[in-house]
Write a structure and sequence with these properties.
heterodimer; A: alpha+beta; VC0802-like; 7-stranded antiparallel beta sheet; 5 helices; about 35% helix; globular; B: alpha/beta; Rossmann fold; GMP Synthetase, Chain A, domain 3; 2 domains; 9-stranded mixed beta sheet; 11 helices
Chain lengths: ~140, ~425
């Protein structure tokens, strides 16, 4: 139940983000979800893509610093309270969310939220016990 | 091993007697043959006959790099071009190159000094010397070449470049002594690894590294990766080239200056006053035996320290510490003297950044600011912002602890800082513009 996410170190310099997008598009890699964390110095671009290995290889080839992290993809109903119920389950058990970002599926019925946890296995287990739908990597890459 | 036992272990009084005699002859000679020195002596009101003791050296004027430029190309030569058998020149990063000349005897003197140098590093007849210093106008390649031949070793004049081929040659020829810059030594190890060759399995026993400042941390790194004793050497083309001072492999603690050929002083940067043993300042050399291009009190702009405690190798010469910086690199930030090499030592000691950096100095209002761009190491890149920010704060603290100056550290992408074959542009001081 792990989803692989790649992260890219970006200096605060005009054109770096565009360069990432260009490199991925030229190699036919599709971006499924993304989030950008930024500070005054640098940014970290986190991506879920259709082909992790290829994305990593082409980005490295172009001189980017690329990391890999396992995250969880959780399906949430697209309605008021959808997110809140999930966060409740986690906070009751003292599970810390490092960061998260969301995207809405084509159907518009469900949203998918990407979570980065301290303790991924424990968090996934807990969510599943509470009947929350945690998606497989293969599902997310092809959404 | 001591190559020239008689001179390298001379008792102090005998050494100083020789130095004085040679100094007196030198002063007579440059006054008579080099117009620059005649006018510089006259301006100071000093005559060659005034030098009656070694302390008299202090009366003599300094020679600056600019003086060499002003007399480009051959104006400082103390002999006619008929007697000059060799010319070398240093890369002039700013302006004209510095041109130096050698008579036949100068070349012999230099070869002797380089034989001493290699012997001090532990090389001997029968060794195979892989000489990867550049051959050409630069003094490194030919300096080592002549010294190795004088010693009776077999020299491979491979020069710089074509690293993959060098790895094959050093393996197939079974080289035992490596001579190159410390950064090239590390590059050789990297390329060997890429080629699937364990550098430590080669026959190298010792490496003689110089031509750029390096640190104890780099020594450890080289010795670990290359599996040899790494010895530091000092020289500059203006004085003779390599062969001015070298560490002995027995102690690897300070470089023995060949004082029968050079008088070394360390002076206060601002006042020009000679400093006592143990105090850091600018190295100043006077050449005692050179014929074509003798120099009086040449200010090297290299910073070091002298000490005279006996060494277990048996040499009696004064030792100088590693070059810790360049006087023209020194920055004064909020009243504190800062050398880029100090910041480099902090970065070198860390595993999570590469030792590539640029310092930006600026003034905001009345306050000087120091910002440092440093390349993150790919292996430790984290997707969590706080990890990277903690790293920046840690480096800032380490630098503050060392220098007493607070700074701002910015992580930048690997390989984004310009690499330079020669001198890297490590400091951008916006206060001057």
């Amino acid at each position: 139940m792990r989803v692989e996410q790649i992260s890219i170190f970006l200096e605060n310099k005009a054109g770096r983000l565009a360069e990432v997008a260009r490199v991925l598009s030229e190699s036919g890699v599709n971006i499924r979800a993304l989030s950008l964390a930024d500070t005054s110095d640098f940014g970290i671009l986190r991506l879920i893509v259709s082909d992790n290995d290829k994305a990593k290889a082409v980005l490295k080839e172009h001189g980017f610093t690329v990391g890999k992290t396992d995250v969880a993809a959780v399906q949430v109903e697209d309605r008021p309270g959808g997110l809140s119920s999930i966060l409740d389950i986690l906070s009751k058990q003292g599970i810390n969310v490092e960061y998260m970002y969301a995207f809405v599926q084509h159907s518009g019925k469900d949203a998918v939220i990407i979570f980065r946890f301290d303790d991924l296995d424990r968090a996934v287990k807990l969510l599943q016990e509470n009947n929350v739908k945690v998606l497989e990597g293969s599902t997310v890459y092809t959404l | 091993m001591i190559y020239d036992e008689e001179f390298e272990t001379l008792p102090r009084e005998a050494l100083e007697a020789i130095q004085l005699k040679r100094l007196q002859a030198l002063v007579e000679k440059v006054y008579a043959t080099v117009p620059f020195y005649k006018s510089a002596f006259d301006e100071k009101g000093v005559k060659p006959g005034d030098i009656r003791s070694l302390e008299g050296l202090r009366k003599l004027p300094f020679t600056l790099k600019q003086d060499l430029r002003d007399n480009y190309p051959f104006g400082m030569f103390a002999t006619s071009m008929e007697n000059v058998v060799r010319i070398h020149a240093s890369s002039g990063t700013t302006g004209k190159p510095t041109v130096v000349g050698y008579t036949r005897r100068d070349i012999r003197t230099w070869a002797g000094l380089m034989a001493r140098t290699l012997a001090a590093a532990g090389a001997h007849k029968g060794d195979i010397v892989h000489n990867a210093y550049g051959y050409g106008l630069f003094t490194g390649g030919l300096g080592f070449h002549y010294g190795a031949e004088r010693l009776g070793a077999s020299v491979i004049p491979v020069s710089g470049g074509n690293t993959k081929r060098q790895i094959l040659l050093m393996r197939d020829f079974g080289a035992t002594v490596l001579t190159c810059t410390p950064s090239y030594a590390l590059h050789l190890a990297d390329v060997a690894t890429e080629e699937g060759i364990d550098f430590k399995s080669l026959k190298f026993r010792v490496g003689v590294f110089g031509a750029e400042p390096w640190t104890e941390n780099i020594r450890k790194e080289i010795e670990k990766q290359l599996g040899l004793d790494a010895v530091d050497i000092y020289g500059l083309s203006e004085i003779i080239g390599p062969g001015v001072a070298v560490e002995c492999v027995e102690a690897k603690n300070g470089l023995h200056v060949f004082e029968d050929h050079f008088i070394v002083e360390v002076i206060n940067l601002e006042t020009g006053e000679p400093l006592p043993y143990g105090e850091t300042g600018e190295l100043v050399f006077t050449t005692l035996t050179k014929e074509a291009f003798p120099l009086i009190r040449y200010r090297t702009r290299d910073l070091s320290v002298l000490y005279h405690e006996p060494c277990k190798c048996g040499r009696n010469m004064v030792r100088m510490g590693r070059i810790t910086g360049r006087s023209d690199d020194m920055l004064i930030i909020r009243g504190v003297n800062v050398f880029p090499s100090q910041i480099e030592s902090v970065l070198m000691a860390r595993k999570d950044v590469a030792p590539h950096y640029v310092l930006f100095v600026d003034r905001k209002g009345r306050m000087d600011t120091l910002e440092i761009n440093v390349e993150i190491d790919e292996g430790v890149f984290s997707d969590a912002v706080k990890d990277l920010q903690n790293m920046e704060r840690e480096i800032e603290k380490e630098i503050k602890d060392l220098l007493g100056v607070s700074c701002k550290v910015h992580l930048v992408e690997p390989k984004s800082i310009l690499r330079s074959e020669g001198k890297a542009q490590r400091v951008i001081d916006k206060r001057k513009s």
